[in-house]
Design a protein that fits this description.
By secondary structure, the protein is α+β, with helices and mostly antiparallel strands. 27% of the residues lie in helices and 29% in strands. It has a 5-stranded mixed β-sheet with strand order 4-1-3-2-5.
């Protein structure tokens, strides 16, 4: 059984170019496949491997200290969905196509799920 893990976090990674090497080396060692995108604005990717291997990658990221709010979703498969590993350096981790937007500073207000219906029903909310 393979664990599939989608993960991302917007976080300033001034060293994203050099961070690539230790992350990739660990993923090769753990036999993890998939794609990770690294950029100044953070990390985004989907990877697969054994549960222990995926746990190892997540632990590595959390031990770094910058990935305290890593968004993670899991699924499972009898076969691996990826044939190889890619750790790519990009301008953006999510293509917005808009110059000079900083997703680290241009954020909205978090709404708790239990407050959502009341918020969108409020006539004073656009």
């Amino acid at each position: 059984m393979f664990t599939i893990c989608a993960l991302y976090q917007f976080v300033r990674l001034d060293d994203f170019e050099t961070f690539r090497t230790p992350l990739r080396e660990l993923m090769v060692e753990l036999e993890v496949k998939g794609t990770i995108l690294l950029a100044l604005e953070g990390l985004n990717g989907t990877i697969s491997g054994s549960k222990a291997s995926i746990d190892g990658v997540i632990q590595f990221l959390q031990d770094d200290g910058r990935f305290d709010n890593l968004e993670i979703k899991f699924s499972h498969s009898e076969t691996t969905p990826f044939k190889r590993l890619k750790v790519k350096l990009k301008k953006e981790i999510v293509t917005l196509g808009v110059e000079h937007i900083d997703p680290l500073s241009s954020v909205g207000t978090y709404v708790n799920p239990q407050d959502w219906n009341a918020l969108i029903s409020d006539p004073d909310v656009v």
